[in-house]
Amino acid sequence: MITIDSIHKSFGTTEVLKSVSLEVNAGEVVCLIGPSGSGKSTVLRCINGLERYDGGAITINGRQVDADSRDIHDLRTRVGMVFQRFNLFPHRSVVENVMEGPVYVKHEPRSEARKQAIELLEKVGLGDKVDAYPQQLSGGQQQRVAIARALAMRPDAILFDEPTSALDPELVGDVLTVMRDLAREGMTMVVVTHEMSFAKEVADRVCFLYGGQIVEEGNARALLTEPQHERTQDFLRRVL
Ligand code: ADP
Ligand code: MG
After folding, report:
1. Which of 8, 71, 122, 207 falls 20 to 30 Å from 115 in CA-CA distance?
2. C-alpha distances in angstroms, 16 versus 132, 188, 190?
3. Nearest Cα residue to 149 out of 82, 84, 104
4. Alpha carbon distance 139, 147 (integer Å)
5. Does ligand 1 have an atom closer than 6 angstroms to the CB of 41?
6. How far is CA 226 from each of CA 60, 202, 223, 232, rounded to the nearest angstrom?
7. For position 77, what pLDDT does the model report?
8. Nearest to 94 by CA among 128, 69, 50
9. Which pairing describes strands 2-11 and 55-60: parallel, antiparallel, or unpaired?
10. Which positions are tagged coiled coil (predicted)?
């Protein structure tokens, strides 16, 4: 579904992605791990066209991702993104946040969008927070709203960029549970995370990024328990 073919990316004279290649099949969960600054967020941002890449190619369902093209907005409706900071609209209620995309981008009728938003909020365990405002919710609840908001666009895939890194430890579990459920339902997911136990349990594959390159990629359990590359071994020793 997602094919990344030797993409390069520089900011000024700094090359931050050096020939990154990755394939994600429909229904697969791929986790990206690696030290801070290794290029994980940049990979995700290139996939949904928030950042342009300088060389190589990314295609989604056979269509090339081009941040400058006119159908980049259409592409973004098909690939959801969930960030470390939830970016909810503070002056809109929870259900309005979830309805936003379907109503304003997809021009769905409000009543339909609201009905669907409520179902999604129930799915992420927030059926009782429909009319609350973001600041009345915990970080973990806000992140689950952000996931419901991404799902509301009925995306083909969702990209997660450290979705639990900004949360208090006791709130992480509920967010990971929602993500685990999505994976079980067959959602295609690319997840940047430091939650190694989540990666081990849920990911089909794990890629270790270092210095803008994927230095090791493989079956999640194998890579996390028996990393082959010295850089991976060193990284995992630090985080586990
Ligand atoms: P990670 O998510 O793995 O921490 P990033 O993809 O955010 O890494 O960043 C990779 C490298 O690119 C870092 O060295 C970072 O400083 C640099 N970088 C990221 N975004 C920008 C930007 N907009 N301008 C300049 N440098 C950037
Ligand atoms: Mg990052």
Report:
1. 71
2. 41, 25, 19
3. 82
4. 12
5. yes
6. 31, 17, 5, 9
7. 86
8. 128
9. antiparallel
10. none
Cβ-count burial of 165 within 10 angstroms (0-12 exposed, 13-18 middle, 19+ buried)?
A: middle
pTM summary value: 0.96
| Axis-axis angle for helices 169-184, 139-152 (nearest 10) | 20
Is residue 73 pLDDT above 90, yes or no?
A: no
pLDDT-based confidence at residue 70 (cuts at 50, 70, 90):
confident
Pocket test for ligand 1, best of 8, 11, 191 (most atoms within 8 A of CB): 11
Give the pairing of strands 213-219 and 205-210. antiparallel
* AA identity, residue 199: A
- 240, pLDDT greater than 80: no
- Taking the C-alpha atoms of residue 163 and residue 199, their distance in angstroms, rounded to an integer, is 13
Would you state the pLDDT for residue 67? 80
The answer to whether 157 and 80 have CB atoms below 8 angstroms apart is yes
